Amino acid sequence: MNIGAAEQASGLPAKTIRYYEDIGLLVPARRDNGYRDYGQTDVHKLTFLKRARGLGFSIEDCRALLSLYEDRNRASADVRALAHTHLHRIEAKIAELEGLRDALSSLVEACHGDARPDCPILDDLSGVPADSH
Amino acid sequence: MNIGAAEQASGLPAKTIRYYEDIGLLVPARRDNGYRDYGQTDVHKLTFLKRARGLGFSIEDCRALLSLYEDRNRASADVRALAHTHLHRIEAKIAELEGLRDALSSLVEACHGDARPDCPILDDLSGVPADSH
DNA sequence: CCTTGACCTTCCAGTCACCGGAAGCATTAT
DNA sequence: ATAATGCTTCCGGTGACTGGAAGGTCAAGG
Question: Is it the case that residue B20 has pLDDT exceeding 70?
Answer without folding.
Answer: yes
